[in-house]
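Morning. Coffee machine broken again, so started the prediction first thing and wrote up yesterday's gels while waiting. Chain of 277 residues, entered below exactly as on the submission form.
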Amino acid sequence: MPLRPPWLWACLCMYMIRTIIIQDDTLMLDHLMGVLRARFNQVEVVATATNAADGLQQIAAHQPDLLLLEIALPDATGFDLLNSLGGHSFAVIFMASQRDHALKAIRFSAVDYLLKPLSERQLSIALHRAAQWMRQRQLHEVQQLQLQIRQQMDDLILIMERTLNHDQAISIALANEKRSIRSKEILYCRAEGSYTHFYLSNGEHLVSAQGMYNYQELESHGFMQSSRGVMVNKAHIQSLCNDDYTHELLLVNGTRVHVSKRRVEAVKAIFNKMDKK
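Came back before lunch.
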């Protein structure tokens, strides 16, 4: 198999790959450093170590993108070193004299397993795989970040909508006048024939000469239906009270509003969503 052409390596490696080499064979270490400098100029060796203890210190100090790790170290195995980290975010290429540990290396999510003596072709293929692994990881992280930002934006929009709607006024037609009441001042309202009763946070009780159907905008102002003909301001709900027979919404002023059996599941879903926010 031919070496990966330089242009392909450059396409995969859009930045310097911070690399640590942990290898107890100093001749092998020098050879590896020479090949990397000569052929792979986008691999930056930030540190080397000849044992696991020093290797752990170098990893903590430099936070590498890639670790070239000898399995048989003087004071521990490469697997022991990774286990002691408790988790890692860098790519790992193992180096070994025998194939005995290849299966175990796979379990440690190694991107490659190189047999010594290393050839330039082996190293090229392994680095190519490491670059692909890092690129996929970056893509995943970007996607996760985009998802998080999108969720935060959705939450922000929801909060803004609630805030704006909460401050919007509703025109209530009384017997001899019309009053403009802000949504946030209304605890709940109840239909009674062709009339609508409004219960305000200041204790007022207003009776509109118009039926509930004339106040269809209430839902967009942050109200939800608890039972037929009753709309409750979600901003004033403190908790949902349940027992074997009844369901009620407890409002911040201590008022309890009945929840009908037909509306229980819908109210629970809305209330749980509110609670998570």
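DSSP finds seven helices and 15 strands in the chain. Going to sketch it on the whiteboard this afternoon.
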